[in-house]
Amino acid sequence: LGKRGDIVEVADGYGRNYLLPRGLAFLASDGAVDQAGKMRRARDQRDASDREAAQGVATRLVPKVITITAKAGPNALAVLAISEEGGLLNAPDVYMDKIAVGPGYPDNIIDLNKSVKENVEAVAKAKGVDPHEIIVCVLDRPRHEKLIAELRAIGCGIMLIPDGDVAGVIATTNPETTIDIYMGSGGAPEGVLACAALRCVGGQFKGRLLFRNDDEKQRAYKWGITDLDKVYDLKELAKGDCIFAATGVTDGSLLAGVKHLPGDKLTTESVVMRASTGTVRWVKGEHRVERKDA
Q1: SS (H, E, C) the chain
Q2: pLDDT digit string, tens, across residues 134-165
Q3: What's the pTM?
């Protein structure tokens, strides 16, 4: 019908029986009209200030050329997460211990304060299968040798991925990947990005920052983090309305990578999700590379 402060006309029954009893609207008396005008002017001022700030950011971003140098391993993504102000944890560039599952499980089915075996058994019980039927995704890193050994002792399946723990976390939400749990440590900012995606499609996530030295602890204090042992829940890492977008760089479980086709054409595959609506949009693009001598 409109925004706060707007003056609109509605059917008598709708206004009398629905809007007015719920305090969603007021009759347009002289006093109410004056108050509505003040509210609109205040809103317009806020909108103008927000537009000016956004234009300032856009001005700084437009001339920047970003070159990303990385291995051409699977699951490489170009990722963006947006939230309302303060919605995403300002995570320092340190490691984070992570555990994640997809949607459909009881709340708090996973717990970083429990053992690997206890977490696998809890998910298996909720799923109605034996622990050895659970598949856990883990980054293939030397630091995960102990974790992998524990999983093998349980007898569950292990899917080792060379890179891309954002895609690894999101894979728990897609039954076609057959991945039930993501476990292990990886970058803290990547953990926040993955949580923005889970807010859109469902799932659970627990994360705890890991510090290797005093310099990394000081980095956390600089970003306003004082409880260094805190276990973060999904909605503490990404709260409010969130938008997550990703484009595949190399082929992976979530998206196909960039393909260079004859005729100077590139194809891309992207996904855009929003938490408030639960909308997931898959986008396939074809891009023509401009010739330098054209």
Answers
A1: CCCCCCCCCCCHHHHHHHHCCCCCCCCCCHHHHHHHHHHHHHHHHHHHHHHHHHHHHHHHHCCCCCCCCCCCCCCCEEEEEEECCCCECCCCCCEEEEEEECCCCCCCCCCCCCCHHHHHHHHHHHHCCCHHHCEEEEECCHHHHHHHHHHHHHCCEEEEECCCHHHHHHHCCCHHHCCCEEEEEEEHHHHHHHHHHHHHHCCEEEEEEECCCHHHHHHHHHCCCCCCCCEEEHHHHECCCEEEEEEECCCCCCCCCCEEECCCEEEEEEEEEECCCCCEEEEEEEEECCCCCC
A2: 999 999 999 999 999 999 999 999 999 988 88
A3: 0.75
